[in-house]
Amino acid sequence: MMRRLSLLWDKIEKEGLSSFLITDLINIRYLTGFTGSSAYLLLSNGKSIFFTDFRYQEAAKKEVKVDEIKIIKKNFFTEPPRELKELKRLAFEEHSLTYKSYSLLREKLPKVRLIPMRDIVSELRMKKDPEEINLIKEASAITDYVFATILKEIKPGMSEKEVALRIDFLIKERGDVAFPTIVASGENSSLPHAQPTPKKIKEGEAIILDLGATFQGYASDMTRTIFLGKVPQRLKEIYLIVKKAQEKAISQMRAGQKTKVIDAIARNYIKEKGYGKYFGHGLGHGVGLAVHEKPTISPLTNEKLLPNFIVTVEPGIYLPGLGGVRIEDLVRISEDGVEILSKSEKELIVL
């Protein structure tokens, strides 16, 4: 944790600042180890001060690695602590601090210049250390186990909700659920972020399973599309296109490559096959303490991939009225390629 704080201090100093208030709880966990739901972290003049309330004082003693822990008894924004009042300039996380909280700070700290700062902590979080990589691998292994198990249990007549609940149960036996599980069958599979419904699963349908686990706070994310009974010819066609698009993108991923370039490899292949307008989301995103974090792999970003970034690669084709296909893997970027963390089968699966 102290190494992460040291790296953040370097970033703060490069911005010409000496004080930074962190309010994003995921960023606070990354920097301090705190797993509770109420905290603030102040970096000021070379010192790290952690603020929480009575509920978490014992947890903070066990988890938090900072210079000083303070237990606050009053609202942090209506009655700011002395450490804030003594400052001349204070940077804050512009993505996290609400307008209401910002307004209160302006009112209560009239002599302090408040400076909005981009999410520089998430920039640090993009590059995973060995411990983080191992935790994400554990989370990914849970996802693979659950997928293999649920394949043996899906039957015609089960509802999407039944399958989703069973997936969640299996995940919670070994970790926790990273995000609301997606089970989408038949026409529902043409909805990229469908929610499980009471709809019964039928033979001849595509079924998209998008699931993720967390292990000690770190997430996994994987999608597979499977089929029950006979596979409609057009769905088989788009399955093979999506699979090939993903393979092409992954084959070109390595440190130094740009996110926009990787997205274009998969997107252009799908366009060449006549389905460009049916792939409307980005190719991937970072995964770590949050299931969606930087970097984003899409036509709208041009970030450079670096070693030990962990990202998803998830092309899809969605045909309204028929169904959809998405295949998503979790990969770790290396100097000369990737390590694929999702081990589940990607050949066309028919139950």
Automatic annotation (TrEMBL):
Residues 135-335 form the Peptidase M24 domain. One of its GO terms (molecular function) is aminopeptidase activity. Keywords: Aminopeptidase, Hydrolase, Metal-binding, Protease. Signal peptide: none annotated. CDD domains: APP-like. PROSITE patterns: PROLINE_PEPTIDASE. InterPro entries: Creatin/AminoP/Spt16_N, Creatinase/aminopeptidase-like, Creatinase_N, Pept_M24, Peptidase_M24B, Peptidase_M24B_aminopep-P_CS. Residues 4-126 form the Creatinase N-terminal domain. It holds the Pfam family Creatinase_N. Gene3D superfamilies: Creatinase/methionine aminopeptidase superfamily, Creatinase/prolidase N-terminal domain. Belongs to the peptidase M24B family. This is Aminopeptidase P family protein.
